[in-house]
Amino acid sequence: MTALDPKPFLAAIFNAAVAAADPQRTIRDHLPAPPKGRTIVIGAGKGSAQMAAAFEKVWDGPIEGLVVTRYGYGATCQRIEIIEAAHPVPDAAGLEASRRLLEKVQGLTADDLVVALISGGGSALLPAPAEVLTLADEIAVNEALLASGAPIAAMNTIRKHVSTIKGGRLAAAAHPAKLVSLVVSDIPGDNPALVASGPTVADSGNRQEALASIAAYGMKLPASVMAHINSPAADAPRVDDPRFSRNEVHLIASAGVSLEAAAAEARRQGIEAVILSDSIEGEAREVGGFHAAIAREVATRNRPFRKPVLVLSGGETTVTLRAKGKGGRNSEFLLAFAIGISGMEGVHALAADTDGIDGSEDNAGAFADGSTVSRMRAAGVDAKAMLAGNNAWTAFNAVGDLFVPGPTGTNVNDLRAILIS
């Protein structure tokens, strides 16, 4: 262990997790049979452009298509058009992308094939408000969701009930063509109908569940939105809708697979690894405190795991906004973790979003160790005050511990890696 440099080691763990979700590796194994008619490729998400590029390379036959991704996440494609739009708050470019995607699947026949490349982030990238609503309404919904602390499954159940494209509606528009969805999951539990709010996959969630979540998390939504969700017009297509009878859904990458790859990389470097879970949810700072308690127990009592060990977890935490600081769920998790292990030797951690962006800045997450809080103090930063103000980015930036790998081209949610030597 003495020769192991923690930051490069943890970065290698992150890279192994991302590589396992690389669409260049995963799409080839899930190609549908070529159709008699046309092949149309559509898609949305932070990994959709790279998925489109990978699909072009392995598809033997003519294709055309359109996918939308986040600004700065594009890729070079020859036959599939890439549109960029805003994330996490929708914009007019996303509205136009939704219109064009719906237009792209109009007028198809039963001989045609639609391939949908879906990854996390597609909810914000596909604003398509119901007829009685506006883009401003959908933006207000998104902002309320992001500030609520609600889990991603609840958020996406609400989103699909204010949309004309989510909740299986894009698939319904493509009927009678056969539709095959290739999904990179960023959802705890890997329900493909919740990834990007399921534009091509229906699920059993209903508007009563959406209303229950709005009430449970105290969301303040525009009156027009509440009126719509309370009306039958908000109902999404059902799972047993006959328009979906020929459709297929394939999960081609997930947090679980990526965590296994991260563990294998640790063992390759001589460190035993354990996976707590691939679907941890909850308030980021509370989850950070829980992980810190595990790290302290291992470091001081050699239980429940024997050191040296790498403790891994995945999933998607949430942040209830209490102030207007800079940060994201991974940096907030890690700041709470750093406070919990302050002063301990031999504990190093990385928390990062596998898509390469945590929150609204350019970092995926950050590094922390037992000296993080004292180094912040020396830099004039109070770690607890930064945490209280949702200002984790500022805190880690002050000590040079932000992790900035850039956009990765995939998205299987958050990776938390804790090395205890």
UniProtKB/TrEMBL annotation:
Name of one Pfam family that matches: DUF4147
Keyword Oxidoreductase: yes
E.C. number(s) listed in UniProt: 1.1.1.81
Gene3D superfamilies: Glycerate kinase, MOFRL-like N-terminal domain, MOFRL domain
Protein name, per record: Hydroxypyruvate reductase
Domain MOFRL-associated residue range list: 10-229
Top-level taxon of origin: Bacteria
Keyword line: Oxidoreductase
Molecular function as annotated in GO: hydroxypyruvate reductase [NAD(P)H] activity
Keyword Hydrolase carried by entry: no
All residue ranges annotated as the MOFRL domain in the record: 310-414
Species, as recorded: Mesorhizobium ventifaucium
Broad EC category: oxidoreductase
